[in-house]
Amino acid sequence: MSPRNPNMESSIYEGSDGWWHGRVTMGLKDDGSPDRRHRRARTETEVKRKVRELETLRDKGRAPKAGRKPTVETWMTTYLTDIASLKLKPRSLDDYWSKTRNDIIPGIGKHRIDKLQPEHLERMYRVMLDEGHAPSHVLKVHRILSRALKIAHRRRLIVENVATLVDPPTVDETEANPFTKEEAKAFLEAAAKRPTFMRWCVGVGMGFRQGETLGLRWPYVDFDNELFHPQWQLQRLTWRHGCTDPHACGERLHRFEPCPPDCKPHKTYKRGCPKPCPKNCTRHASVCPERKGGGLTFTRPKTKKSQNPVPIPPPFIPYLHEHQARQETMRTAAGDGWEEHKLVFTRPDGRPLDPRQDWEEFKELLKEAGIDDRRLYDGSRHTAGTILNELGVDMPTIMEILRHTQISQTRRYVKGRSHLSKDAMRRMGDHFMPGPEPTTETRTETVDRRAARAQRRRRIR
Q1: Facing residues of 23 across strands?
Q2: Partners of 20 in the beta sheet?
Q3: Are the C-beta atoms of 297 and 355 separated by less than 8 Å?
Q4: Which uninterrupted H or E stretch holds 14?
């Protein structure tokens, strides 16, 4: 009879099936029963290697927990529902869900997280790039997946975060294209013909984000101290189901087959036909009778620094008073149909301005002003930062006005101008190589007289 192995010592033996087996004691399970892990191989040397690897993980406290590991799809759902939702802003959480549903789950969702290999991620990224996705989109998917696997590794569900072994696509930073001073004036002249003139003055002249401008309320406008307090922003969020069976709730809208090439129902869609629904589709929350958390919603700005007060340019004050008086006239005209939100910029019935319509109006104003097409951010925050820099305002002050947390972020919003560079280099050249001083006629005559007198004195002597 063979002696009993000491506690926590592994056992290796050859089974009747012709395989070599190893049993490693890892500790206790959650229910208090012994946690014994099994490894097997064709040779004794191979099974000993596997047993040593498992013992090393156990001794370092890095061994994964017992039990079958979830798939990537299951873990991503758990991560977004129970973990990320506690920390992320609603708009960011919507973006995480979108990229998980459309990219991560179709690409690697069936793999178990402990069996995931770097090659699986690289293949998924290559397919996404071949389908026409931008490298920046692929990089965002990589960061979302890496964060989820980092939490899984921290909780000892996996031994290693394979996303750290993969190099995502390189992304070139989008170059800012702000308005010049002349373009900014032309844009505001075109906006002056519309009721939303002050909305664009705040966006272009003060560098407010779109959501901060549309969510600005009169109680947070301090006329006495000439300050804006951007405490809220307006965002459009995705609706979520409030019912117990999301799949059955949206049953009448499920489409599992792609649209034909000559699809008529979706011909007016700007983004083309929607993708077919997955097998267990839980979308279409907008038709749920108990829907929640979506539509136009007031949310807090993304950082504490974003809520800092911003000085109002004194020339804006009279126009703001005039805008407030016009809004009072609209409130009186609307009567009972007025929806009170205390917003600075509203529709004729008091409702918030739709961010989509606001973006479309920006594009219309570009055409009216004769300015080439560009992003809304280029015509607001980037323009404000660049023009402040041209006016001689230092970087720390621009950072405070734009409410950035780091000055490196502010530098990305400020684009240099060629005429400023030329002027700076001209002054540099004048400093190192000053030109010859001009000689005046009076000085030349004085020098000649002195030389002549000296010559006469030498002759006399």
Answers
A1: 11, 38
A2: 14, 41
A3: no
A4: strand 11-14
Residues 289-302 have pLDDT tens digits of: 999 888 899 998 87
- Span 120-179, pLDDT tens digits: 999 999 999 999 999 999 999 999 999 999 999 998 888 889 999 999 988 877 788 899
- Across 88-101, average pLDDT: 90
Of 290, 294, 283, the closest CA to residue 254 belongs to 283
- Sheet of 310-311: strand order equals 221-222, 227-228, 310-311
pLDDT at 436: 60
The Cα–Cα gap between 317 and 267 comes to 46
Residue 2 is predicted with a pLDDT of: 54
Rounded CA separation 94/84 (Å): 11
Residue 264 per-residue DSSP state: S
Tokens for 207, please give them.
Answer: 């560098």
pTM of the model: 0.73
Crossing angle for the helix pair 135-154 and 118-130, nearest 10 degrees?
160
- Show the tokens assigned to 396: 């720390």
Please say whether the beta carbons of 381 and 367 come within 8 A. Answer: no
The answer for residues whose C-beta is within 8 angstroms of residue 389's C-beta and 6 or more apart is 395, 398, 414, 416
